[in-house]
Design brief:
By secondary structure, the protein is of the alpha/beta class. The protein is 35% helix and 17% strand. The structure holds iron/sulfur cluster and zinc ion. Iron/sulfur cluster binds next to loops.
Amino acid sequence: MEIIRDLQNQPMLDEKQLGALLRRHSRDYSGVFSKNLVIRTYRHLCDSGALEPDPALLQRLRMKPTRTISGVAPVTVLTKPYPCPGKCIFCPTDVRMPKSYLSDEPGAMRAEQHEFDPFDQTHARIGTFRDNGHDVDKIELLILGGTWSSYPRDYQEWFVKRCFDAMNGKEANSLEQAQLWNESAWHRNVGLVIETRPDHIDSAEIDWLRNLGVTKVQLGAQSLHDNILDLNKRGHKLSDTRIAMQLLRAAGFKIVLHWMPNLLGSTPDIDRADYDLLWSDVSLRPDEIKIYPCSLLANAELYEYWKRGEYQPYSDDTLIELVAACKLKTPAYCRINRVYRDIPAPNIVVGSTLSNLRQVVQKKLRERGQRCGCIRCREVRGIDIRSKKLILDDLVYQSVSSEEHFLSYNTQNGELAGYLRLSLPEVDSDLNIVEIRGAALVRELHVYGSALPIGENAIGRKTAQHRGLGKRLMYEAEQVAVASGFNLIAVIASVGTREYYRARGYKLSGTYMVKRLDENHEQ
Ligand code: SF4
Ligand SMILES: [Zn+2]
């Protein structure tokens, strides 16, 4: 208790002074006071009523603060090892792991410790976030491993339900019940992400994903050249990626594309042209992208090609220049999530092991007076947002079947405080989802800042959340939809955000939150 009082009395301590204070208390009490221990003690005292909650103190003690900088706690879980229908020559095979994962990757090691059990993995990650001082009432659940759509459906349903059970802290009888409970649970699911192949997406699969509560799909496009897809035995064509993206967008999903430069048969020039096509082709234009330069691994078939002299990984310099060029081409509506897959270096036979590639490229761009304009590079960080100084922007771009609006609030310096993706469909889709027929679609609403507990007021805290930005963005989206002739708007809401939309006049219809725009509604 004394150490906590000491910390509260000295709110301006920097990291070094904080360390010295912890060491002094450790000496005085002949024990070791780590930040982690202080956080746990703080939580215990608050839970027992002995201490008033002090969010500012928790914010100062928070370890790895960037983990929840985007406003939600990302919880990553892996599915069990299971064969993938893909035969991709670059993909590693480790029988102990789901296809494409290596047993010494940190996330994979954690999953193995829990024998790939979804409940145990989710529960443990929530505990780690809590112990490190993060708020975990908003969780984005990322389910990784092989091709999700190729796992048996009863396994998929069980897996998702058990993740929900862990977030709810109790066991439901069905997935439906678990989802219902999560609407008011302590740890709410605000995003559910799976990864799959383009040729596994069709109308029926989309119904199924919505039934599970999925809101974001990571799609392995890898290349936009059919001959390169063939050479690497991907087993699908560019046309599959186009169709999958159109269907996913029509259902309101957020789409993360995986793209791999340096595949067999490619060159830096081909990769550059490929990246250009991502943005010039109206059938593509993903919301987020993961750039995974191909790594040469001994347990992948590509290794044999390299031994025969038929394949060569790019040098560090080539890769740096390529990624720098990609960054400059990325439009403002897209977020570059990764530029490198963090494979532990000993697995890479030959080629780049620059795990800090992002930083190296950023430095190079800065030296040239250039900068990446993607969402990630513009996200507001640690700035006290005053909402009245924010500027509204509506970036309009075309997809093959819709007019897309990227509505955002930005600071005067161009930092992104929050955004909303609105899709205005222009053609009827092949989907069977009646509740969104003829509706404008809100595909994403995101407000930046460290995750704040649901309902907590942000005044005085350095975050953009809970300053009414979400509400203002929703209002703007409704105005744009009405002006474009839509009288219905639907949100692909995660089950844990349904209450938020109910409070704004939306009703649950199927798996979407919908609102009529021709009725009087409160703003
Ligand atoms: S589809 Fe994905 S997981 Fe399956 S073999 Fe290809 S890269 Fe690996
Ligand atoms: Zn960027």
